[in-house]
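Chapter summary example: a protein plus DP6.
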Amino acid sequence: MCSEHPAALVQAQEWGTAGCATAVAHPNIALIKYWGKRDEHLVLPRVDSLSMTLDVFPTTTRVHLAPEAGHDTVVLDGRQAEGEALRRVVAFLDLVRERAGVADRAVVHSENTVPTGAGLASSASGFAALAVAAAAAYGLDLDATALSRLARRGSGSASRSIFGGFAVWHAGLDAGSAAAADLSSHAEPVPAADLDPALVVAVVDAGPKAVSSRVAMRRTVDTSPLYEPWAVSSKDDLVEMRAALLAGDIEAVGEIAERNALGMHATMLAARPAVRYLSPATLTVLDSVLRLRRDGVPAYATMDAGPNVKVLCRRADADRVAEAVRDAAPGGSVLVAAPGPGARLLRGDGR
Ligand code: ADP
Ligand code: DP6
Ligand code: CO
C-alpha cells in the first residue's frame, strides 16, 4: 500500500494524479527464446520470442513520487540498489518522466519472490511491475500494448510479463524508422488450445549469475559463429510452436521448446570467450527428464541464463515429474507452476 489512507489513494488514482502506485507481475519462461538485440538503446530483439507467464514468484513494486528529492531511491528486496541495478531503474524512470512531462524523482520499493539474477526471469517480473506502477504513479494512461512496449525498455523479457498465459513478443519492423520499430515491438497473447500445462521449476542454484543476460547476449551476437544459424532456425521454431499450441499438442510444444533452448545455449558456448550457464546439477536434471520420457511421461526441459531448469509437462503428470526432478537434484528446491496472470495495478487497499 502506498498510503496510510487507502481510500484517498484510490480516489487520487481515478484522477490520474496519484503520485503513488503499487503493481504486481509474475516472471515468464520463454519456450522460444529471446537472445540477442538489434538495438541496445530501444531494446529491440533479433528474434520473436514466445513464453508462458507463471503463477508463482510474484514481484511487487511500489513507486512513490518524491517532488522534494534530488535523486531517485530504489530499494530492492530491502536493500538500497546501487551500480548497474540502480542505473537501469533510473534510466527507466527517466523514460517515464519524459513521456509524462513530470520531472519529479521517485522512491521505488520492489520485492522479488523469485531469486534475483538466477535465470528465473526476475528482470521480467521486475520491470513489468515497475512499468505498471511507474506509469500509474506518473499519471500515464497506457493500455496493455503500450505497457508491454514500455516494460521492454527496462528488460526485453518484461514485455511478455505484462500478459498472462502464453505471449509472443514481436521483434517488430526491421525496415523504416526507429519510431516504427519501437511501436511494433511489443508482446500480445497467443491463441492456444487447452493444454493444461505445468512448468516444474528446479532451482538448483538460487545465486546470482556471474554474467548478466544483457552482457551475455551481446557477447553472443558479437562473437558466436553459431548465433546466426540459431536465429534463422528460431523463426521456424516459432511457426511450429504456434501450430503446436493451437493444436494443444504438448509433446510438440515441449520438443520445440527444448531444442530451441539447447540451441540458444550452444550459441553461448561458442561465444568468445564462452558463456556457460549450465552446471553439473543442470545436466543431472536433464538426465532425469530424458528418463521420464523413456518411461513414457511427456516432459521437456528449458533453461535460461542460469543453471536452473524448468520442465514442461501436463499438469496431471506434474507431481511425478517434480518427484523425479527432486530425486535428481537433492540439494535444490522444486516447485510446480501453472500459467499465471498478467501484470496488474493493486488498488489502494492492496487487493
Ligand atoms: P534474471 O535471470 O533474473 O532475469 P537478468 O540478468 O536478466 O537476470 O537481470 C537481473 C537484473 O534485473 C538485476 O540485477 C536487476 O538489475 C534487475 N532486476 C531484477 N529484479 C528487479 C526488480 N524487482 N526491480 C528492478 N530491477 C530488477
Ligand atoms: C535467456 O530480458 O533478461 O531469459 O533485455 O537485456 O534485460 P535484457 O535481457 P533479458 O533476457 C532474457 C533471456 C532469456 C530468454 C528469454 O527470456 O526469452
Ligand atoms: Co532477465
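Key point: The first helix runs from residue 6 to 14.
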